[in-house]
Write a structure and sequence with these properties.
two-stranded antiparallel ribbon; mainly alpha; single chain
């Protein structure tokens, strides 16, 4: 009887309202300052050790590295690519993202990103770091998405 009365008086079930609202929620990306700190943390935790290992253990010395920079940087980028893609694809977060309680998710499904998305995001990140204009893209966008977020259809959100 109560159901009929609620329907007649245009009252709806609160459980139904929350499920409808949850489906339409837009996930906002984490603040730019937190994402930058996570990126810098990853640079020091992942990239710097790779750099030193390649220069001093694989190439032998700084002079050998400077003589064959293409080989050295190729090794660095390949190892870095494998590590970062592993962290993004398997764990949904790098050590820097984990330190700041962030994770990377698919924009549409809000779930784990695919291998292709992580590869596209990595290449887009390299391109954005090298490009001068693309670094400032999140500052002029209202949703604060970076170039790599737009290209790979991913977003970094709080955990």
């Amino acid at each position: 009887m109560a159901r009929w009365r609620d329907t007649k008086q245009n009252k709806s079930n609160p459980k139904e309202d929350t499920s409808i609202k949850e489906k339409n929620i837009q996930i906002e990306s984490s603040p730019l300052s937190t994402r930058l700190r996570a990126f810098l943390t990853d640079t020091f935790l992942i990239t710097t050790p790779i750099l030193y290992i390649v220069i001093y253990l694989i190439m032998g010395s700084g002079e050998a590295f400077s003589e064959d920079k293409i080989k050295g940087w190729s090794i660095i980028l390949i190892v870095h690519l494998l590590l970062i893609i592993f962290f993004w694809f398997v764990k949904s977060q790098t050590p820097g993202l984990k330190a700041y309680q962030l994770k990377i998710v698919d924009t549409l499904s809000k779930g784990r990103i695919s291998f292709i998305q992580s590869l596209i995001r990595y290449v887009a990140t390299l391109f954005a770091v090298v490009s001068f204009f693309l670094i400032f893209l999140p500052f002029i966008r209202k949703d604060k998405k970076t170039f790599q977020d737009l290209i790979s259809n991913t977003i970094i959100v709080p955990e």
